[in-house]
Amino acid sequence: MGPFGIKLPPLQKPVLLALCALVAFMLASGQSFTDLKPSPQQLEWQDLEMGAIIHFGPNTFMDREWGDGTADPKVFNPTELDPEQWMRALQAAGIRYVIFVAKHHDGFCLWPTAQTDYSVKNSPWENGRGDVVKQVEKAARKYGLKFGVYLSPWDRHEPRYSNIAEYDKYYAAQLDELVQGYGNLAEFWLDGAGSAGHVYNFPRIIEELRTYQPNTLVFADVGLFEYGDIRWVGNEEGVVPYENWNVIDRHGFLRWRPVEADTPLHRNHWFWHTNDEGSLKRTTDLISTYEQTVGRGGQLVLGIAPDRRGLLPDADVQRLREFGDTLHRRFGRNLVSSHAHVTPELEWALDGDPDTFWTAPAGANHASIEVAFDRPIVFDHALMMEWLNAGQHIEKYAVEIYRQGKWMAVAEGHAIGHKKIDAFARVTASRVRLNIIAASGQIAVREFQLYDTESR
Fold first, then answer.
1. What does each C-alpha distance from 435 to 243, 320, 438 come to in angstroms?
2. Coil, strand, or helix at residue 47?
3. Which one of 98, 137, 148, 407 is least enclosed by Cβ atoms within 10 Å?
């Protein structure tokens, strides 16, 4: 007798048994997009919202964007290295975490690694006794920024790169030094860069990392799906395509993979270059980027580059400050804070505190949050945040105002996620609501906020 008591010819039994086993597995482990939930580490990381990736090394001193691994270590000699100056500038912009490029594709190591002589220990800086990674790590923690590293898999200097097995040992040994010597890492970049047919042993890389840093989030291209906790946006323009869903599907497997969008502070390059102030992005450009990254539920990572002194140029510092000041001015006065009385439960979505949230009645597929004001308000932006601990569920929404006896939409969308910022022409209203038109699971809202970004 076969499964379910069905009598089968002998040749059919193995086939049906295999099919039944497959069905049982799918029933036991089947997932839908709304079933997926983030890890606590992913939730904490998504709340950081803005980071920076710092490029510094021989390229800085040779006016290059791409190093070929032949630069003499003696070219690396910053005269006024001050990572604390970098952190103050980043803090002024509202940036909350730092990814430091410990080794770029040229293979030059910015810490005194025991694995190669191609490092700061053979530079004149601090007589070969310095450690840039350590100084950056200490500065980041002093100013309250999370710290992470990038260790380029591609190495254009190391002779062992042509021998896959030997280079894997070399890379793993360098990784061990970084993950054991620089405290808890918030993020590890793993971009898979490479050439000449080199195939990296990604399972081994992740195993080495997790041995010492089990809570570190791994940034990786979607192509490295099974190894990453964070996915690359797919461009270097700092633009998250909308709609942005945190769950992605690769080959029938679903995973929570929030998106990170990286873009340099200077147009089209990541390292410092001489006479380059003209490529510095305008504050309006940065605000637009912010609204297309953080405002679409992703992370914004700005590329910054110290100069040959080891300092951020004055113009860069000023631009970062202007960016932070403008963000504060635009989103510092939440008009919802002056709303009329609502129920205590609804207040949790209107209190300006993202640690509280409102939930719709259990089983509801649509709901609304209505806000009334004693006098009309003028606004041109709406900001929403979904409570993601149980997953991303809101599938369609509208921001609406009550006018001439009916509700009118001023903005509409199909995903909120971590954060959604909608911009529209200025409107005046005494009643506003977030109308959640469709949801695939429990509706939970952390924040509903309104802003007039044109006011001063």
1. 18, 36, 9
2. helix
3. 407
Cα(316)–Cα(328) distance, rounded to whole angstroms?
18
DSSP per-residue letters across 114-146: SS-SSBGGGSSGGGGT--HHHHHHHHHHHTT-E
Contact (Cβ atoms closer than 8 angstroms) between residue 83 and residue 139: yes
> Alpha-carbon distance 452 to 454, whole Å?
6
**Cα separation, 13 vs 4, whole angstroms:** 12
Instruction: Quick: pLDDT tens for 106-150.
Output: 999 999 999 999 999 999 999 999 999 999 999 999 999 999 999
| Interatomic CA distance for residues 421 and 335, integer angstroms | 15
- Residue 243: is the preceding peptide bond cis (ω within 30°)? yes
Which residues neighbour 211 within 8 Å (Cβ) at sequence distance 6 or greater? 179
- Picking from 197, 195, 196, 219, the residue whose alpha carbon sits closest to that of residue 205 is 219
Nearest to 338 by CA among 385, 381, 376, 367: 376
The answer to whether 192 and 224 are in contact (CB under 8 A) is yes
Residue carrying structure tokens 């580059």: 305
Q: Do the bridges between strand 253-256 and strand 247-250 make them parallel or antiparallel, or are there none, so unpaired? A: antiparallel
The residues, ordered by sequence, that sit 6+ positions from 158 with a Cβ below 8 Å of its Cβ are 69, 107, 116, 118, 167, 170
* Longest CA–CA separation in the chain, Å: 84
Helix (H) or strand (E) holding 65: none
